[in-house]
Amino acid sequence: MKKGVMRPGHVQLRVLDMDEAVEHYRDRLGLVEVQRDKQGRVYLKGWTEIDAWSVVLRLAEEAGMDFMGFKVTDAETLAARKQDLIDYGCEVETIPAGELDGCGERVRFQVPTGHHLELFAEKEQTGKWGVDENNPEAWPEDLKGMRATRFDHALLYGDDLDGTVDLLTNVLGFQLSEQVLDRDNDDFRLAAFLSVSMKAHDIAFIRHPEKDKLHHTSYYLETWGDVLRAADLISMHDISLDIGPTRHGLTHGQTIYFFDPSGNRTEVFCGGDYTYPDHPVTTWDADKLGKAIFYHDRELNENFLGVVT
């Protein structure tokens, strides 16, 4: 049941030191810095992204995520989904066009896990970075670091997982693609992976006693060799490694996790499953959670599960 929500559009992250954060996301991760605004926020994008930017860094006293935005097909869809959210009982805030440079009006709402999500229909489009639209080359030759291609998804932690899944699926047309259930506790849902596209997931949630926590933001690489190269760069530049390179059971992506200087977890990955509207939900049992998260080791890592911003 698609309702005009197309894909992840952006995320705004809080960082403690802007110079260190820009070095991480631009020079190491390989996003392209495109502009800075009057508030001092820094805008970046992956080189394959059509919109002008997808990642915004804001200087703050506490790390974490301010909000994640999804792009809808047009202004009429934005107005319709706004009314749907109001009818569902959400408190909705309208952010005027231009509050984020080059972005049109945004509709912001809070999901039951405490996170702020938003919808928008318009953003300046500058095309793929360093590649012409006419007779394009395969890739730009002057990419930096891990050469991230796009902002892909975020994994968020919060308490009311079922309420958030209900809102996203029934109001905004997300598809539940994968989940973790506790079979010994009336199929209590511990994790949910949701998609508005053909990807394995565009956003994911883990049940957690605290609201509004960020586990990681994730960026797509092209090959397993690129993930291994990312591991080399993590070592070369003494970046704080979390875990990997490895493979997930959930989504089957090949992955590595590390931290930005503010403590926000970053993932780069390649591969993974795909989702069509007629696909059944893939379910993992809670007693297989180790294999679901770390397919090779088949064991849980408490730091990976517990460290959030």
Automatic annotation (TrEMBL):
User: Secretion signal: which residues?
Assistant: none
The terms under GO molecular function for this entry are: catechol 2,3-dioxygenase activity; ferrous iron binding
> What Pfam family is a match for this entry?
Glyoxalase
Cofactor dependence: Fe(2+)
Q: Which SUPFAM superfamilies match?
A: Glyoxalase/Bleomycin resistance protein/Dihydroxybiphenyl dioxygenase
Q: Which reaction does it catalyse?
A: catechol + O2 = (2Z,4E)-2-hydroxy-6-oxohexa-2,4-dienoate + H(+)
Under PROSITE patterns, the record lists: EXTRADIOL_DIOXYGENAS, VOC
Q: What is this protein called?
A: Metapyrocatechase
